[in-house]
Amino acid sequence: MRRRPGIGGLQNAAAARDQYRLLGENVAKLRTDLMKEQLATFRSQLEDFARKHKNDIRKNPAFRAQFHEMCAKVGVDPLASNKGFWAELLGIGDFYYELGVQIIEVCLATRPHNGGLISLDDLCKLLGQRRKAVRETISEDDCLRAISKLKVLGSGFEVITVGKRKLVRSVPTELNKDHNEILELAQAQGFVTVDEVQRRLNWSSGRATDALETLLEEGLAMIDDGHRDGRRRYWFPCVSSISSYVGADAL
Predict the structure, then answer these.
(1) What contacts 1, CB < 8 A, 6 or more positions away?
(2) 62 pLDDT higher than 60
(3) pLDDT single digits (tens) 105-121
(4) Does residue 104 contact residue 150 with C-beta atoms inside 8 Å?
(5) CB neighbour burial string for 97-107, b if at least 16 within 10 angstroms, e if fewer
(6) Are 44-161 and 174-246 equal in CATH topology?
(7) Rounded Cα gap, residues 203 and 179, in angstroms
């Protein structure tokens, strides 16, 4: 027959548990303090690095992207505010503020031609043309960071992925799965026809026509009825090369 532990045994067991708990809390606190100390050291080293390579960060987009990755690893956001150490040291907040304004201007200027949907690649090319006088090269990473800061303006500015392309949306139009599939299909040659959508996506004629007409009404498509075969072509400037030429003329 097993004997139950006495009061003294229970008290000893409780005391042991308390000691283990306190020991665990002390170890956790030591680890937390050590991590904080390491992060403080990393941040100090990051500031020294930024001072040393200030010009490279401003002028070299690849170097700038790597710098942002380093910042993210230690919990520093140089774009969080235009005030403070990073803004004074690098002027990096002003850089992305100015780039964001230029992105808005390009999107507004090209909207009559693409319906408010432009490929990230075309956007970067048009921005590069505008910024020739500044002589500061920008990358897709720069554009993505600037666009992320435009979210404070509300709905309308965001990056969406369609197939292999990233598209920048500057209007609050919601694209459903059918619209995305048509845009992805159009990437091959810049346009689609109702017959092609039916055949390639295995859709009914009504489904294909409805989706294409919606995209046309939203200003995302342009129609071309001038071909001998008599088939209407739906062109999508946001995924075809013509968008860069049209956009360049509009700026």
Answers:
(1) none
(2) yes
(3) 999 899 888 888 999 99
(4) yes
(5) bebbebbbebb
(6) yes
(7) 13
CB–CB of 149/96 below 8 Å?
yes
Chain-centre distance for alpha carbon 147:
7
What local confidence, expressed as pLDDT, does residue 135 receive? 65
Instruction: Give CA–CA dist 86/51, Å, rounded.
Output: 10
Under CATH, what is the fold of the domain 44-161? Arc Repressor Mutant, subunit A (1.10.10)
Q: Which CATH architecture has domain 174-246?
A: Orthogonal Bundle (1.10)
- In this predicted structure, the answer to whether residue 7 has a pLDDT above a threshold of 70 is no
Domain range list for the chain: 44-161, 174-246
Alpha helix stretches (DSSP H) within the chain: 7-52, 54-59, 61-73, 85-90, 92-114, 120-130, 140-149, 177-186, 194-201, 205-217, 242-250
| Per-residue pLDDT tens over the stretch 136-162 | 778 899 899 888 878 766 656 889 898
Contacts of residues 49-52 at CB distance under 8 Å and 24 or more positions apart, as own/partner, are 50/86, 50/89, 50/90, 51/89
Q: Which tokens in the block code for residue 130?
A: 């505008």
